[in-house]
Amino acid sequence: MSMLAATPELSFTELRDALTMTDGNLTTHIRTLQEAGYISVTKSFQNNRPHTTCSMTASGKKAFTNYINLLETIIQQNKPK
User: Fold this and answer.
1) 3-state class of 39 per DSSP?
2) How far apart are CA 48 and CA 35, in angstroms?
3) Domains contained in the chain, number
4) Predicted local distance difference test score (pLDDT) of residue 80
5) Fewer CB within 10 Å of terminal CB in the chain, N or C?
6) CB 71 within 8 A of CB 63
7) Closest Cα partner for 52 from 74, 34, 76, 36?
8) Range of 60's domain?
9) What is the pLDDT at residue 75?
10) Which residues of 38-62 are buried (b: 16+ CB within 10 A; e: fewer)?
11) pLDDT tens sequence for the chain (81 residues)
């Protein structure tokens, strides 16, 4: 999600390589995020080869922002005084 928050769209290959995940593992993560409505997946062909891209939805952006805010709260609560 953090990678997709930083760019409008990433290909399956870009995500797989950056995250050093197997195709099957990444596919499972993408499916879960898509089912939750957090990302949209577009499948097309590029040079007669399948090309899958992912982008964050408005719902995904909201959920990610809430997650970041929660992490910031936890950090603030645990900083030495």
Assistant:
1) strand
2) 28
3) 1
4) 85
5) C
6) no
7) 34
8) 2-77
9) 94
10) bbbeeeeeeeeeeebbbebbeebee
11) 999 999 999 999 999 999 999 999 999 999 999 999 999 999 999 999 999 999 999 999 999 999 999 999 999 999 887
Query: For residue 20, which amino acid is it?
Result: T
Residue 2's pLDDT is 95
Q: With contact defined as beta carbons under 8 Å apart, do 34 and 4 qualify?
A: no
In DSSP notation, 55-76 reads EE-HHHHHHHHHHHHHHHHHHH
For residue 5, give both structure tokens. Answer: 């928050």
Q: Quick one: pLDDT at residue 79?
A: 87
d(CA 4, CA 64): 10
The token pair that represents 52 in the structure block: 């899958």
Domain of residue 25, CATH code:
1.10.10.10
Please give the structure tokens belonging to residue 46: 């590029």
pTM score, whole prediction: 0.86
